[in-house]
Amino acid sequence: MREAPLQLASIYFRETLAMPPPEDTSQPRLATGCRWGPENKAGNERVRVVLFPEGAIRLQGTGLQVLGCCDGQRTFGQIIQELQAQFSVADPAKIRDDISQFLEQLQHKRIVDY
Questions:
Q1: Average pLDDT over residues 71-76
Q2: Alpha helices (H) along 1-114
Q3: What is the pLDDT of residue 4?
C-alpha cells in the first residue's frame, strides 16, 4: 500500500516532463537564445555546436542533418519526407519515430521550438 504514492509521483513526474511530439504542420527551429557555433571537422565528418543559455551541444551525422533542416520554414512532415527519401532503406515509421523523439528531447532542453 505504501508503494502507491510513489507510483503516482513517478507517473506524474514522467507526464510533466514529456514534451508533445511535433505535428506534421509544426515548423521546427532553434529556440530563442540558441544559435549555431562554428563548424569543424572530426576526421571526415562535419561537427557543429549549438550554443544555448545553459551550455552547448555537439552534433554530427544524422543529428546535425536533422537539426540543420529545422529552419522554421520546413514543416516536420517535409523534413520527414526528405529524410525518408534519403534513407530509403530504413523503415519510414522508425525514421519518423526517431526524429520525433530527437526533437522532443531538444525541445525539453529548450534548444528547439515547434
A1: 97
A2: 3-17, 61-69, 76-86, 92-108
A3: 43
